Amino acid sequence: MEPPKDQPPSSAYPPSGSCNNCGGPTISEPAPQASLPDMSPPPNYRPIRAPAINVPHNPQAIILSPVPHAEKVPVVTPPYQFQRPVKRIHSPDDIRRFQESASFKNFLGFVVSLSESIDGHKIADPCHVSPTVATIVSILETLLRWIDEIPPVPMSSRYGNISFRSWHDRLAEKGESLVHEFLPDEFKESTIEIVPYLFDSFGNASRIDYGTGHETNFAAWLYCLAKMGIIKEEDYHAVVARVFVKYLELMRKLQMVYCLEPAGSHGVWGLDDYHFLPFIFGSSQLIDHKYMKPKSIHNDDILDNFSSEYMYLSCIGFVKKVKKGLFAEHSPLLDDISGVPNWKKVNSGLLKMYKVDVLQKVPIMQHFLFGWLIKWYDSSFVLSRFLSIVTSGCIMWFVDWVLYHGTD
């Protein structure tokens, strides 16, 4: 099937074809096959873990979305008003309110700043590692050791090993004391607000799953530390190359050892079943690389030799490891991205996609928390909405007056 000719080009990588079996995107004309149920996976797709198949992302919304820009994180000042964060998003209207808030724009700007900090750098490149960053890395290494201390129990099912709950219980028990290792005295009381973000960064203990919402919570935890001035702009390079890389190592081990199921995944419609941010940071690493292009992901020698230095290649290698079958069938979106001419376009498209397909999705963001550091409503948003309502009301009153009295 040929794609619609009037569809505009995009950096958001719309599907280039449609599969006869599942309706999913493909890169070539599929061979005629017997019809299968609409929700069946592609015939060669045999994942180690069964992904949740949801409605595909809206490429038009991503096309029309502007590319997010980096923003400086404002540092809070006394008096501090730390509070236990709570859920606020329950509907698309709540998503709209969040999208219009200063918190949304600044958090997304923080993610862009992290992406720009690693632009053109390998993971092993020298960078400034502050004592705070070193301590956070040490904490993640502690969480890694816990996996070895809490082995998976024998189960009849290969999905969702219940030992993950024991690991998570230990995190709940010791999480606050771990955070205290690097918090300055003036911020000791902040644990009531920032620990819940950390606690939600590693998956859900009841469902034994993990997804981009949990990954976003880890980014939100780092954002809270930046708002308190504990993480500074000069730390951003190390936050990505040291902290986030260690977090990714931890999550992959949790996924493999405890067989975490994908949470809210797009299945074959998404980048992969679990992560998004390492694709953003990894594509930034490769911007203007002399030799490696987006199509280089199909070269197994490149993946074997350079995955340890570039997050994007590491993610592709991991996807190929845990999924069976043709890459174009189990990961059609990643396959489509490989046809983009340069990494800068890949990076900008992924940032737009993260905004639309993660931060603006109710099933993902309904679990996101809001407190004093990440406000649900801020004064600037309330004022702008009030002025908008007053202005629109005055205009309507004037129109009614003119229609009634005429122009004489």
Automatic annotation (TrEMBL):
<comment type="similarity">
    <text>Belongs to the PTPA-type PPIase family.</text>
</comment>
<dbReference type="InterPro" id="IPR043170">
    <property type="entry name" value="PTPA_C_lid"/>
</dbReference>
<dbReference type="InterPro" id="IPR037218">
    <property type="entry name" value="PTPA_sf"/>
</dbReference>
<dbReference type="GO" id="GO:0005634">
    <property type="term" value="C:nucleus"/>
</dbReference>
<dbReference type="GO" id="GO:0005737">
    <property type="term" value="C:cytoplasm"/>
</dbReference>
<feature type="region of interest" description="Disordered">
    <location>
        <begin position="1"/>
        <end position="49"/>
    </location>
</feature>
<dbReference type="GO" id="GO:0000159">
    <property type="term" value="C:protein phosphatase type 2A complex"/>
</dbReference>
<dbReference type="GO" id="GO:0007052">
    <property type="term" value="P:mitotic spindle organization"/>
</dbReference>
<keyword id="KW-0697">Rotamase</keyword>
<dbReference type="InterPro" id="IPR004327">
    <property type="entry name" value="Phstyr_phstse_ac"/>
</dbReference>
<keyword id="KW-0413">Isomerase</keyword>
<comment type="function">
    <text>PPIases accelerate the folding of proteins. It catalyzes the cis-trans isomerization of proline imidic peptide bonds in oligopeptides.</text>
</comment>
<protein>
    <recommendedName>
        <fullName>Serine/threonine-protein phosphatase 2A activator</fullName>
        <ecNumber>5.2.1.8</ecNumber>
    </recommendedName>
</protein>
<dbReference type="GO" id="GO:0008160">
    <property type="term" value="F:protein tyrosine phosphatase activator activity"/>
</dbReference>
<keyword id="KW-0963">Cytoplasm</keyword>
<dbReference type="GO" id="GO:0003755">
    <property type="term" value="F:peptidyl-prolyl cis-trans isomerase activity"/>
</dbReference>
<dbReference type="Pfam" id="PF03095">
    <property type="entry name" value="PTPA"/>
</dbReference>
